[in-house]
Amino acid sequence: MHAVILAGGKGVRLRPYTTALPKPLVPIGDQHAILEIVLRQLATSGFTSCTIAIGHLGEIIRAYVGDGDRWGLHVDYATEDSPLGTMGPLLTMRERLPETFLVMNGDVLTDLDFGDVLARHRDSGAPLTIATYARKVHIDFGVLTTDDSRVVAFTEKPSMDYRVSMGVYGLSRDTLDGYTPGLPLGFDELVLDLLKSDCPPHAYDFDGYWLDIGRPDDYDRANAEFTTRKSLLLKGA
């Protein structure tokens, strides 16, 4: 099984932590970087190879990970010279990708079974499988519903439930057909194109542990919780 890890972003929302380090290498706990945790999880899930898409401070990632041998993985790299969006880097490496593969952000902290996501994707026959997570969004204001300048309903500080993308996907190589290598391609654009063509993605619903380390408060929470979650995130460690 093969995985592609997207690690080319600048991590702007996580500054100042990412001023000198790429976001996937910020430390979690006393001994581990996020990317190391991800690589160990992939190996445990049965993955044997991985491509890391690098850009900003990519040489540091390459120096840290090397060929992936210490995790039992064969790791190679794809360099993003300019921002290509979430899915754009896949177009530049399309010819060396297998028929189906896993795609994930390099800053996801979760106990999701990555191997099962890819297996379910293969079984579904869908062009794209999206790992999803239930999130509750709290609105800090009273919400008005209006009709022709008349207030017809009011809800005080409601909560809304959504299923959100976890940043982990199963993808089929031919789903990328028709897109031009070297041009940006966002996850949103790909999903909307699939919906327009009546080829909807498959949802892989997950209710375990998940954190997207995108903001300083998320990062602080990850470090605070890591000691109690370590055995879950790094099985056998």
Automatic annotation (TrEMBL):
Ranges of residues in domain Nucleotidyl transferase: 3-227
InterPro entries: Mannose-1P_guanyltransferase, NTP_transferase_dom, Nucleotide-diphossugar_trans
One Pfam family named in its UniProt record: NTP_transferase
PANTHER family for this protein: SUGAR-1-PHOSPHATE GUANYL TRANSFERASE
Protein name in UniProt: Nucleoside-diphosphate-sugar pyrophosphorylase
The organism of origin for this protein: Streptomyces mangrovisoli
